[in-house]
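quick one: nicotinamide-adenine-dinucleotide bound model?
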Amino acid sequence: MERIVVIGANHAGTAAINTILDNYKDKEVTIFDSNDNISFLGCGMALWIGNQIPSSEGLFYCSREIFEQKGAKVYLETIVYHIDFDKKLVFATGKDGQSYQTPYDKLILATGSLPVTPTIEGTDLKNVQYVKLYQNAKEVIDKLHENMIRNVVVVGAGYIGVELAEAFNRIGKKVTLIDTASTCLSGYYDQEFTDIMSKNLESHGIKLAYEETVTSIKGTGKVEKIVTDKHEYPADMVVLGIGFKPNSQLGKDVLELFKNGAYLVNEHQQTSQPDVYAIGDCATIYDNSIQKTNYIALATNAVRSGIVAAHNACGTPLKSIGVQGSNGICIWDLKMVSTGITLEKAKKLGYDAVATDYEDTQKPAFIQHDNYKVKIRIVYDRKTRIILGAQMCSEYDISMAIHMFSLAIQEQVTIDRLKLTDIFFLPHFNKPYNYFTMAALMAE
Ligand SMILES: Cc1cc2nc3c(=O)[nH]c(=O)nc-3n(C[C@H](O)[C@H](O)[C@H](O)COP(=O)(O)OP(=O)(O)OC[C@H]3O[C@@H](n4cnc5c(N)ncnc54)[C@H](O)[C@@H]3O)c2cc1C
Ligand SMILES: NC(=O)c1ccc[n+]([C@@H]2O[C@H](COP(=O)([O-])OP(=O)(O)OC[C@H]3O[C@@H](n4cnc5c(N)ncnc54)[C@H](O)[C@@H]3O)[C@@H](O)[C@H]2O)c1
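yep, here:
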């Protein structure tokens, strides 16, 4: 029986394991994870902290029992500390002290990512929190209940930072949001969009501290204030959300790595050793918007790469079709979605890029119920006309619309093809001159 070992059983690992166990009954699957839980949806963390959901109960979709029922050997709270890639052996130790030396024919690395830690004084103080695991969220919530926490400073105004700033504000905390960049969500949207999010955050009382670099976190035992190159802010809790780095510790000396340390994989999710696959946040992914290998840490990518690796490891050739880094966020009533690259990023990467913008209401003016303004930007290459990115925002749920642009980028569609794309009209849903069409028609 062919032996497949999977290291890491969160989103990427879970997708790979379920694909193998559901489709290839002849494989012997062994799973190691250092954590005591499987499949925690980090995306629910802000909802849980912000009291928008009653508990963490629904934030898991898989378990040890599910894997075991399907025939896998599961070792949780068991850390893999070494891999002998020549002898094809995995070495692990359980919390109970038990040692494992497990041979593999195929190995799937799904060790994910770790939060970036700033190299500043004071990160070891009490109430300086990272937010990645279920345990991290639980600890934040426990401390919020136990302690007199009034001032929360969130460092990093990316996706995690903005979502958590809202969550802490919802439960009555005084929130300061710090970022070195000149705006929030700068990796995902152009300034015309991020300004709208900033206004939204400020209108709810969140203090924005952009273009500030944290120099130290101060306190006696427990955090008391955070100091930046420009100001200092009182803090009873500091939450660090300044990005993820790939966790490639186990293979970094043997396998080929990307510039940020992620395992470099091909379209079959194979690393530089053909019997070793890497998936999710520990691996690279092909980015169709820039037509290059990239690093994009998202649960959606983790799941898809897990499925691809599982089929290939089990002998069914399957190529990844790449991704566009499609993403979305909803902060109070404001919904923002994007895919591909922003105009700013396109220019930085050397594209001769332009954007076409349009603003309209979702439905005709005579529909007075549930009718909101929508703002759209489509970024494309001036010469090839190929769509490179799209951004949308509204109080209306426009989220499904971004998927069309995701497919357009995947398929290298030009802005001109979009001009006459068949978009239906019904006043309940949209306008006869839809804003996609209008934005495309207004392209240079
Ligand atoms: C607060 C928050 C909100 C998020 N929201 C979204 C969202 O809305 N949408 C979205 O697409 N993405 C979101 N993400 C990102 C998403 O969670 C990650 O992209 C995803 O978790 C990656 O899955 P993964 O399985 O590759 O890695 P991870 O989730 O990092 O899992 C890696 C697993 O490997 C195990 N492991 C690591 N090293 C070892 C070892 N040596 N031995 C044994 N086990 C090991 C770990 O215990 C862990 O279980 C969010 C992340 C956070 C933190
Ligand atoms: N809704 C979603 O899809 C969602 C939600 C949460 C997380 N995620 C994903 O999880 C991953 C991690 O999220 P994240 O928010 O940590 O990363 P991020 O890349 O979204 O944001 C990190 C932010 O930290 C800032 N930053 C970096 N170094 C800093 C420093 N020293 N001081 C102050 N600011 C600094 C950056 O300018 C950036 O705005 C990302 O890949 C993200 O896309 C997605």
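The chain has a mean pLDDT of 97.
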